[in-house]
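ok posting inputs for the iron/sulfur cluster job
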Amino acid sequence: MNPFAYDRPATVEAALQDIAANANARDRTANQHEIRFVAGGTNLLDLMKEGVTIAPHLVDINRLPLDAIEETPDGGLLLGALARNADTAYHPLVEARYPLLSAAILAGASPQLRNMASNGGNLLQRTRCWYFYDVATPCNKRTPGTGCSANGGITRQHAILGASEQCIATHPSDMCVALAALEAVVRVESVRGKREIPFAEFHRLPGDRPDIDTTLEPDELITGIALPDASRFVAHSAYLKLRERLSYAFALVSVAAALDIGDDGRIAGARIALGGVAHKPWRLPEAEQLLEGAVPGDEVFGRVADALLHGAVGRGANDFKIPLARNAIVRALHVASRGTVTNQDIDAGEGQ
Ligand SMILES: Cc1cc2nc3c(=O)[nH]c(=O)nc-3n(C[C@H](O)[C@H](O)[C@H](O)COP(=O)(O)OP(=O)(O)OC[C@H]3O[C@@H](n4cnc5c(N)ncnc54)[C@H](O)[C@@H]3O)c2cc1C
Ligand code: SF4
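and the output
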């Protein structure tokens, strides 16, 4: 690991000043910031040890008062950026009101990692494309303009939707798939002020700048994630994650599905987001609309899956992801329509 300077400010203002004082604080070339925030360190420190990320100056934000989980006046919740993934997943209000989020977080990583990983850091974790981590290979995301080793290489984990010639990486987070379905809003702050970023606009597709993962400016701090009221989806949600082994593995395909089913048995509204298939959580409101007014069933679920996967392209070793994703969408919708699988069900071995 390269040597680095280290600060541990106690206030948000001091942390923002620290970042802003740096000469290249607003340079968006993602791997070359002079200075970076560090939270749980479970991704950033690995990247620094591997030489993927060079960060001569770290600002440790763990002392900032951003670890609360609080109710908001509109019936939603505000998740502090520094609340740990484990504390978030097992928080009584999250379990009761957002079982989809709770299940998605618990499908990720390991208990030890979830104890360290912060909510803000989870949003900014970088792709698990193995070429990105291997500094001996060309990678446009790590070093812009060098080429994409995955294109024409080993593509088993890679994208089937929204990719570009420049990059076919996927976003690895489970939590973010649920946040996309729940229409979360990311609250951020810099010395220039505060702003809110709707979740659909937070992560980017690669285009010709795969080195830039998100619309967050480098000098902006994530302070929290706001969840709007989702009470209509509480009774019918499911997170289905398909992976190489049952724990401690990233998704090949995952599906966050939430249904609002009326007393007449018909679907009044739906939210579906996919993980493991694109550079960002994949959501298509037009596909969700196909479910409105429908009675849950194979035929309509299949049509929704086809709409969500419209334009999907395999690259040899990941061709299997297209039928896998179709089956996963249909299955997740069936599971959700039967009723939410809670953490207690999962702990008792009755989950998916
Ligand atoms: C072996 C392993 C397996 C894993 N498996 C999974 C999995 O199955 N599913 C899954 O979803 N995840 C998985 N993860 C990823 C894990 O969830 C992330 O590493 C973690 O969420 C990152 O959070 P952190 O607080 O440790 O971030 P850090 O490593 O501290 O930071 C990550 C990035 O976010 C920036 N940052 C952090 N907080 C803020 C903030 N508040 N504002 C602005 N910038 C910030 C940092 O500068 C850095 O660039 C796995 C990780 C490992 C190591
Ligand atoms: S897919 Fe993206 S991250 Fe992977 S090698 Fe290509 S450019 Fe790099």
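notes: The mean pLDDT is 94. The two ends are 40 Å apart (CA to CA).
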